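Below is the data:
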Amino acid sequence: ELREYLVKQYPEKTSGLMDMEPIVFSNVHFAYELEYGREASLLTRKNSHEGLDRKIEIMQGSMVCVVGPRSEGKATLLKILGGVIIPPDSGIFIPAHLRILHVAAEPYFYKDSMYKNLTFGLHPDSPGASKERVKAICISLGVNEYALRYLEEPTVGDSDDGGEKWSLVLSLTDRHLLNLARAFVFDPEVLVLHKPTMPFDERVSSQVLKVMREFVTDRGLHWDSEQKTLRRPR
C-alpha cells in the first residue's frame, strides 16, 4: 500500500521510490519480564496513551533524537529498531534494502589491531576500509593524535598482549570516539546510536554532532562528493 501511494504521489520519481520509503512504527508493544511476574520498561503502557500506541514515520535522510523521562523506554525503542530486541508483534516496517547498525553506549573492542577493530564487518579490499578513510573519519571526530599512531600497527597474530595494548592506553574520550568512528566507517543506511554525546564535554559534543549531520547530508563520510547522489540516504 505504501509503495502504491508513493507511485501515485510521485509518478516522476518511480526510480527512486526505495529512498522515499519511511521506517514505520505502529502500535509497538514490549515489556521486560522480571521476577515474580512483574513487568518493567513498557513501551506502551496498558490503559495509557503514552509510549508508541500510535504511528510514527521516520524518513530516510533524516536525523532523529529520542528524548523523554528516565525509564520510559527510549533505549528499548532503539534496541528494537537496531534488531537487538524483537517484539512478538513488532509493528515495525523497515525497508528491506536498509542496513541498520546498532551502537551501544559502552564501547567494546576485541583483541586485534585498532585498524581491524575500526573496519570490523568490511572486506579488507573494500574502498570503505582504506586506512586513509578510516584515519580521516577519526580526525573528523577529534580522536587524539597519540591514539591514532596505533592505526599503523600490524594485525595481531600471537602477541603476548593479544592486541589489547592500544585499547588499554586510550582515554575514556578516545574510546567513545573510536566507538563512533567504527560505526561511521561501516557506513550503514541507518545508524542507531545510544547517547552519542553523553561522555563528552561541550566542545567535543559539538564536533560529534557536526559529524553526525555530515553523515546524513553527505550520505556517508569521506566518500567522493561527486558520487553523493548515487549513494543511498543516511
About this structure: The chain has a mean pLDDT of 80. Helices lie at 2-9, 74-81, 114-118, 131-141, 145-148, 165-168, 172-186, 202-217.
